[in-house]
Amino acid sequence: MPEALDAQAVSRELLRCWRGRRSQPAQSRRLGYTSNVAYAWESGRRSPTAVEALRCAALGGRPAESIWVAFHGNRPAWLDHVAPDSPEGIVAALSDLRGRTPIDEIADRAGLSRFAVSRALSGQTMPRLPTFLALIEALSLRLLDWLAAAAPIARLPSVAPAWAQLEAQRRAAYALPWTQAVLRALELSEYEHLPEHRTGWIARRIGVPDAVEQDCLDALSAGGQITWDGRHWRVSGSEALDTRRDRTLGIRNKRFWAQTGLEQLGAQSDGLFSYNVFSVSERDLERLRRLHLAYFRQLRSVVAESTPSERVVVANVQLFALDRGALGRPAETPDETEDAVAVTPATRDATNS
User: Fold this and answer.
1) Which residues contact 248 (CB under 8 A, 6 or more apart)?
2) Cα(126)–Cα(133) distance, rounded to whole angstroms?
3) CA–CA dist 122, 139 (Å, integer)
4) What is the pLDDT of residues 2-26, one digit of tens each?
5) How far apart are the C-alpha atoms of 242 and 296, rounded to whole Å?
6) Given this model, what pLDDT does residue 172 score?
7) Are strands 226-228 and 233-235 parallel, antiparallel or unpaired?
8) Residue 49 and residue 131: Cα distance in Å, rounded?
């Protein structure tokens, strides 16, 4: 779970929000129960399964399908095959988020046993709402985005402060893409071993003007991503920053880092710049698309476990079709990789897959 968020508390707030003005007994009857399960759930005495929770969401005006579409920014393919508020739909949604992440890694992130995670992902047991939320966070690092799709954030008081901070951090990433590189530079062992912060040290390390360094530090400090300890700037928190929520701004950031890669190529950088233009079957194109996503997820896992921090690196990973524009099924939007996501050793307990 994101730092300072309580899965049990968030679950109760979601259930109260979805119930709206309806009484607890009336909500229980609407769900088909003769006992007052709404009271038991909202008091924390019991928790609904993920399926029961999504039925509550639908009664509150947030159907499961709309939640997943809003969360992904497009309609995931598995929605064509299973109902999202069914046991099969829960398994499909979690499996889609999982990719190829090992069970042990997921269990560690979610704070669950390997056995519990395995049974939930295979459909042998249906996770309760708090566990379901913990799995979404462990598999995607985007629980706050899922909650924003599932309910008005203002009606989730335990989440609202974290959401406000996340949005401030995203605004900084959109306005100043170099903030993400400055953050990574602050984690470098060499910076930490400096007697004290040296203005311009970061700028020279990553190749930007001193003014850009200062603007980024100001924005990161305002967003709570860094704090001053009297001698150095320190990176705060442990969450990676995922900027997929605003597709237009996310595309702008992708263009920024693609252009940065082009500038590196023009400067004859010793980075890896590879390409391959080819023809392929639709079936194998889908295989390549999945390999592309799997590679990016595995790259993030390696980065999340890497220590010490010694270099600041950008990975631009691209795969696109020249003849149709769309990649994979025409109804899908190929935007499944993270935009301007910063994953660091500090996020090893909350990294996506």
Assistant:
1) none
2) 13
3) 15
4) 656 799 999 999 999 999 999 999 9
5) 14
6) 82
7) antiparallel
8) 9
Instruction: Name which of 185, 141, 345, 177 is nearest 256 in CA terms.
Output: 177
Average pLDDT of the segment spanning 313-323: 88
Residue with tokens 């497009």: 74
Distance between CA atoms of residues 215 and 205, nearest Å: 16
Phi and psi at residue 228, to the nearest 5°: -100, 125
3-state secondary structure the chain: CCCCCCHHHHHHHHHHHHHCCCCHHHHHHHCCCCCCHHHHHHCCCCCCEHHHHHHHHHHCCCCHHHHHHHHHCCCCHHHHCCCCCCHHHHHHHHHHHHCCCCHHHHHHHHCCCHHHHHHHHHCCCCCEHHHHHHHHHHHHCCHHHHHHHHCCHHHCCCCHHHHHHHHHHHHHHHHCCHHHHHHHHHCCHHHHCCCCCCCCHHHHHHCCCHHHHHHHHHHHHHCCCEEECCCCEEECCCCCECCCCCHHHHHHHHHHHHHHHHHHHHCCCCCCCCCCCCCCCHHHHHHHHHHHHHHHHHHHHHHHHCCCCCCCCCCCCCCCCCCCCCCCCCCCCCCCCCCCCECCHHHCCCCCC
pLDDT digits (tens, 9 = 90+) for 207-234: 999 999 999 999 999 888 899 999 999 9
Please classify residue 320 by burial: count the beta carbons closer than 10 Å to its beta carbon, then call 0-12 exposed, 13-18 middle and 19+ buried: exposed
Are the C-beta atoms of residues 94 and 120 closer than 8 Å to each other?
yes
- Number of other CB atoms surrounding residue 279 within 10 Å: 8
pLDDT given at position 343: 40
pLDDT at 114: 95
Sort 52 into a burial class: Cβ within 10 Å, 0-12 / 13-18 / 19+.
buried
Residue 239's pLDDT is: 52
Is residue 117 scored above 80 in pLDDT? yes
Sign of the Cα pseudo-torsion (280, 340, 64, 120, in order): positive
Query: Between residues 180 and 238, which one has the greater pLDDT?
Result: 180
Structure tokens at 291: 């390999």
Mean pLDDT of the chain: 87
